Amino acid sequence: MGFARACSVALVGVEGVVVEVQADLEPGVAAFTLVGLPDKSLVESRDRVRAAVVNSGAEWPQKKLTVGLSPASVPKSGSGFDLAVACAVLGAAERIDPKDIADLVLIGELGLDGRVRPVRGVLPAVLAAAEAGYRQVVVPEQTAGEASLVPGVSVLGVRSLRQLIAVLTNEPVPAEEPVPEGSPDPMLAGLMVPGAGVGTGLARESADGPDLADVAGQRVARMALEVAAAGGHHLLLHGPPGAGKTMLAERLPGVLPPLTRRESLEVTAVHSVAGILPPG
């Protein structure tokens, strides 16, 4: 009988909830049960994780295996739990020390060959982990820069499960080919924000956007925009077609104050969840 736990993060919208991934091994007919309100893509992680572990050179435990995702009341979706599930299973099988992964947050999808593939929403996931008090996270190498935007968190970017096992067991880290970068989702290509990810990696509006100084007349509407921007108020634009609502709305970002770092992280987190944050 063996038991181990690791941590991952479930995203509910753009908010993250830290999830404890528990693995329990007991004598009996070899089986793999996953509980804790997983969706279809997460249920399929059983096959991905098994193949990834075997193809990474580790032995798959031939016992009754139960993996629980806690809290069970939180819906869990996506393939980002693969890495945590694999490490919890390996910890329960004593391939790695369970103590080394007990307070480790792991986010990433596993290929059948053991490569760690990037997933959406790494930034809000790491933000949630940091707010919950976790200080060590493991993410796919491609998203390590994104995760490093969160202050006070130590980030390890890995290319494969083999590399992670080697790090956790103090063995020589094998060289791996970089995971090929996927092309942007064509459904989201039109939503790319010019200038996003430049410099610090935080999303920002283009400096070449429309300028409120170009608007002739519209004295009351211009004053409303300036007051709303300066005071952080809500703004309702109402009027017939052609009155200038869109023209004014397009120029509002030009008079907004610069984002604070926390606001920049929140905006960038939305881009991360949408899958439109440029690599790097």
What does this entry show, briefly?
The chain contains 10 helices and 9 strands.
What does this entry look like structurally?
The protein contains ten helices and nine strands. The protein is an alpha/beta fold. It folds into two domains: 2-168, Ribosomal Protein S5, domain 2; 189-274, no CATH class. The strands form three sheets. The chain has a four-stranded mixed sheet. A hairpin with a 2-residue loop joins strand 1 and strand 2. Helix 2 (45-55) crosses helix 3 (82-92). The model is unreliable at 183-206 (pLDDT under 50).
Major sheet characteristics: 4 strands, mixed
Q: Which regions are unreliable across 5 or more consecutive residues at pLDDT < 50?
A: 183-206
How many domains? The number is 2
Tell me the strand order in the biggest sheet. 1-2-4-3
Helix content: 25-40%
Q: N-to-C SSE series? A: EEEHHEHHEEEHEHEHHHH
Q: What overall geometry do the principal axes of the alpha carbons give? A: elongated
Give the class-level CATH name of the largest domain.
Answer: Alpha Beta
Class from helix and strand fractions: alpha/beta
Beta-strand content estimate = 15-25%
Number of strands: 9
The CATH architecture of the largest domain can be given as 2-Layer Sandwich
Rg: 23 Å
**Global mean pLDDT:** 88
> Which fold name corresponds to the CATH topology of the largest domain?
Ribosomal Protein S5, domain 2
Number of DSSP helical runs: 10
Terminal residue distance: 43 Å
